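Below is a filled-in request sheet from our internal design queue. Each sheet records the structural input a requester submitted and the sequence that came back. We keep these sheets so that new team members can see what a complete request looks like end to end.

REQUESTER: design group, bay 2
PRIORITY: normal
MODE: inverse folding
CHAIN LENGTH: 143
BACKBONE (tokenized):
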């Protein structure tokens, strides 16, 4: 559980009530093997060959999904390269792509474990950004 918290940068600290049923399910499917308990009685598990294969498949699936989501980013920001001001809009294209990609990554990441503090931080950033963009739009409309 500590390792998961460390690997996720503190974004997810699973409880024993979520980890041990998952480990039991993985063991029932032949993906993990329970090792002898240590001196303090803590359970340890190891991936089996089938578990290693399953883990690799899941990692590849996650990477394919991330790439598909990244594929959508240019489609969503494609309008930033067209029109009379196409050259000027091209300057915005890469930052817009980064923003869309970050939002997609954020959605996937937050789905796992969203704290109240993180939700507030994300909401503040999004509200601040939207407000600044709305101000620019109004300024442009006024000419």
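RETURNED SEQUENCE:
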């Amino acid at each position: 559980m500590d390792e998961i918290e460390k690997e996720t940068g503190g974004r997810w600290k699973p409880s024993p009530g979520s980890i041990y049923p998952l480990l039991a399910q993985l063991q029932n499917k032949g993906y993990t093997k329970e090792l002898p308990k240590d001196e303090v009685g803590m359970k340890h598990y190891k991936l089996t060959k089938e578990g290693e294969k399953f883990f690799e498949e899941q990692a590849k699936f996650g990477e394919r999904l991330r790439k598909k989501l990244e594929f959508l980013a240019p489609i969503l920001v494609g309008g930033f390269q067209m029109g009379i001001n196409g050259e000027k809009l091209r300057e915005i294209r890469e930052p817009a792509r980064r923003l869309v990609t970050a939002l997609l990554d954020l959605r996937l990441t937050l789905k796992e474990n969203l704290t109240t503090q993180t939700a507030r931080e994300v909401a503040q950033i999004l509200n601040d950004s939207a407000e600044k963009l709305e101000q620019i739009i109004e300024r442009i409309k006024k000419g």
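SHEET NOTES:
- Strands lie at 32-35, 44-47.
- The chain has a mean pLDDT of 80.
FILED BY: M.R.
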